[in-house]
Write a structure and sequence with these properties.
The protein is elongated and about 75 Å long. 11% of the residues lie in helices and 37% in strands. It has three domains: 104 residues, no CATH class; 107 residues, Thrombin, subunit H (Beta Barrel), CATH 2.40.10; 101 residues, Thrombin, subunit H (Beta Barrel), CATH 2.40.10. The longest helix has 11 residues. The chain has four helices and 20 strands. The protein has a six-stranded antiparallel barrel. A six-stranded antiparallel beta barrel has the order 13-15-18-17-16-20. By secondary structure, it is mainly beta.
Length: 331
């Protein structure tokens, strides 16, 4: 019983009381049959009341090829403290108790302040060249002037997002510069336009903006990003963090070296992996590496051509710049 209690504590990380764990050891599991649209997120939320448990669920069920899309018809054994998923091939009909309602798909709300990596070859639509009364810093409802005019196809009413470039970002493995970190400053709308310049009003400011800030076509900032199945497996790296800190966790923003050219799209789910190095003093054979640990999960919220912006939605352990990430396709 002490051993059962110890294992239960590790699985739930202290989330259940001793009495609950003892009861779980003696209870028969409830059988659930995966329905179309079910996700590990939904199953974790539904049965364990903890939607963020799903990376643990995936890691402890190697029969699951795709962590967030599982096969209809698979049997699930639901215990008070865990969920066990049987391989799809062993799912047999008859005498089962499928749920009447499939788990809802999960989506993530992003604010638009995440930023991105501006890659080589990406050209801004223009920039702010001056401000009313030559002020260096402006904000909401202030007047600015841009180098975008009718020659660029601009017209009154056009909206643009305002950004600022920060430092170049080098790849943690190859040391190659892969882009410049960019942060959003606000939005503006053109009110008067001439051939080569225009007048605009700042419609919203997130941070201080001024001359030199560059412009891109307006994109709605606050939006929902639903989970989406991937078409192929991919492997890459966390190349930078939004904050610039080496260590990040749940709720933080990072940038990876995978983008549209590799098939990455907003809504794709990636897992952060860390290699386990064996201690050779305890084995008689040569072992190069052990199965990697799953230490977190990321959702792509913006995809560039060769890089993407990701939101950390689960961190079992501290995540670092230079950690490896994997995208698993639907099987």
């Amino acid at each position: 019983m002490k051993r059962v209690f110890s294992i239960g504590c590790m699985l739930l990380a202290g989330a259940l009381l001793t009495v609950g764990i003892a009861r779980a050891a003696s209870e028969e599991p409830t059988i659930y049959v995966i329905q179309k649209g079910d996700t590990l997120w939904g199953l974790s939320d539904r049965f364990l009341k903890d939607p963020y448990y799903w990376p643990n669920l995936w890691a402890r069920n190697p029969a699951i090829g795709n962590p967030h899309l599982i096969y209809p018809g698979q049997r699930v054994r639901v215990y008070p403290d865990r969920i066990e998923i049987e391989p799809h091939a062993s799912a047999a009909p008859g005498a089962l108790r499928p749920s009447e309602e499939p788990a809802a798909e999960r989506s993530f709300l992003v604010s638009g302040s995440e930023g991105f990596l501006m890659e080589k070859g990406v050209t801004p639509a223009g920039k702010i060249i001056s401000t009313n009364q030559n002020r260096q810093i402006v904000g909401d409802d202030d007047i600015v002037y841009t180098d975008i005019g009718t020659a660029n196809g601009a017209k009154v009413g056009d909206r643009f997002s305002v950004y600022k470039k920060l430092d170049p970002v080098s790849h943690p493995v190859t040391n190659v510069i892969i882009g410049e970190k960019v942060v959003p400053l606000g939005t503006l709308q053109i009110t008067e336009v001439e051939e080569k310049v225009s007048k605009a009003i700042v419609t919203r400011s997130y941070q201080e903006l001024g001359p030199g800030s560059f412009l891109l076509p307006f994109q709605e900032k606050r939006r929902q990003v639903p989970l989406k199945a991937a078409a192929k497996d991919l492997s890459g790296w966390i190349v930078e963090t939004q904050s610039g800190h080496q260590a990040i966790g749940e709720g933080d923003i990072a940038f990876i070296d995978l983008g549209k050219s590799q098939g990455v799209e907003p809504g794709h789910l990636l897992y952060v992996l860390r290699d386990v190095v064996p201690d050779q003093q305890y084995t008689d054979i040569s072992i190069e590496k052990l199965p990697p640990e799953v230490i977190g999960a990321l959702v792509v919220v913006r995809a560039g051509e060769a890089t993407s912006t990701v939101l950390v939605v689960k961190s079992i352990d501290t995540i670092y710049r230079g950690d490896r990430v994997e995208l698993k396709k639907s099987k």
